[in-house]
Amino acid sequence: MPELKLNLFVLQTRSVQTIAIADGSTYSDSVTEPTIKITPPGKDPVTLPFTPTAYNVFNSSNLGLSVPFQEDNLPDGIYTLLYSFAPAHLNFIEKSFMRIDRLQEKFDSAFMTLDMMECDMTIKAQSKKELDTIYYLIQGSVAAANNCDILVAKKLYKQADKMLDKFVRGGCGCNGTYKI
């Protein structure tokens, strides 16, 4: 019989409206009363049923962030997961992760705008360099969250968001000036 080993994976949905969590655990016995407690950034935790050894998808409605059956965009930030089953004091795993889907969507829009501009090569090179910097800040935020450094994760996220807003506002006027 395999040994109990709990593990969760947060999967990329490429959607600002959903979170997918896969159970990568190995179980020695059957599981009773499986639940997951999800704490969105700055919100109260919500406890939901969880299907072991499966993909579980959550949205704003079942997370209590919007009215039932109305899916809104989920907030970016640090989410905490607590998966457990009976007896919960013995069988649990807790994980945190940095959600960046809204910021990534904004970054993707800015990137596509850059590729469609009719600017000279010097301006394009500067714009690409700026987007590279923003991209590394986003990835640094995720890495910091994965290493339990929540303060750094939030700081890098805010810096990337601020730089991205400036990039989008400034853009390329194709006149040799670039506003940062």
Can you walk through the features of this model?
With 180 residues, the protein is an alpha+beta fold. It folds into 2 domains: 8-99, Sandwich (Immunoglobulin-like); 101-170, no CATH class. Helices cover 35% and strands 22% of the residues. The chain is built from 3 helices and 7 strands, in the order βββββββααα. Strands 4-3-6-7 form a 4-stranded antiparallel sheet. Strands 1-2-5 form a 3-stranded antiparallel sheet, with no helix packed on it. A hairpin with a 6-residue loop joins strand 3 (35-39) and strand 4 (46-49). Helix 1 (101-116) packs parallel to helix 3. The protein starts with 7 loop residues before the first strand and ends in a 10-residue tail after the last helix.
